[in-house]
Specification:
Number of strands: 0
Shape: globular
Number of helices: 7
CATH topology: Calcium-transporting ATPase, transmembrane domain
CATH superfamily: Calcium-transporting ATPase, transmembrane domain
Low-confidence stretches: none
Radius of gyration: 20 Å
């Protein structure tokens, strides 16, 4: 039982770390190909590190887990980490393409706001899948981390170098605030990105099965000719 707990929990924790590692590499490649700068600052990356990886990983590592170990470690981890990482990559490409001067003409800060919030939300979906099956502690952990995320986005945009998404924050901060309001087109794009996260993750989860089925069907047709 102790061996199962260690292996299963290490797989879950590794999924969280590997998701961030893979999408960080994807963002580096995107930045190099577009000859731009890396779209996420260290303070923004801290949000993902703490809320989705740091504290959840610590709690997960201490959870009892007596499920039978199935499959290979690397394939198990990659099958859970890749869909989330690829989703972040696709969303980043869409945001950077639409942020161009001839389309939405977004500032660097507005573009970064969309990318980081979308990436963090997608990472929360990965965390949700990793935490299942839920118990009381896991529910409290997930809800608490998500509430902190929402509060940080609304009330701490300057710390995380975001555009404000709430006029309430601008009124609350008064004349000293230097943070700009996120433009309405960017806010609508953010809503679309958040809604697409679960759809894209499901698509990338099912994609290997579809490819395998397609190859199998093609081979059967060729063999029947």
């Amino acid at each position: 039982n102790e061996g199962r707990r260690v292996i299963n929990n290490v797989q879950r924790v590794a999924t969280l770390f590997l998701t961030k590692t893979i999408f960080s590499i994807i963002l580096v490649i995107i930045a190099l190909l577009t000859r731009g700068r890396y779209p996420i600052t260290p303070s923004q990356l801290f949000m993902i590190d703490f809320l989705v990886i740091g504290l959840p990983s610590f709690v997960l590592s201490l959870q009892p887990n007596h499920e039978q170990v199935k499959g290979k470690f690397l394939s198990n981890v990659l099958s859970k980490a890749l869909p989330g990482a690829l989703t972040v990559g696709v969303q980043t490409l869409i945001i950077m393409w639409l942020a161009r001067p001839n389309i939405l003409n977004l500032t660097t800060e507005a573009r970064s706001t969309l990318i980081v919030i979308s990436a963090t939300f997608t990472s929360f979906i990965v965390l949700y899948r990793v935490l299942k099956p839920f118990n009381a502690l896991k529910r409290i952990l997930f809800v608490t981390m998500f509430i902190i995320f929402v509060v940080a986005v609304i009330f701490l945009p300057e710390f995380f170098e975001f555009n404000a998404i709430s006029k309430y924050y601008l009124r609350l901060s008064g004349s000293d605030v230097i943070t700009e309001m996120l433009p309405l087109p960017a806010l609508l794009l953010l809503i679309v990105m958040l809604q697409s996260s679960s759809v894209l993750i499901s698509f990338f989860i099912k994609l290997p099965g579809w490819i395998k089925k397609g190859f199998k069907g093609a081979i059967m047709k060729l063999s029947g000719v």
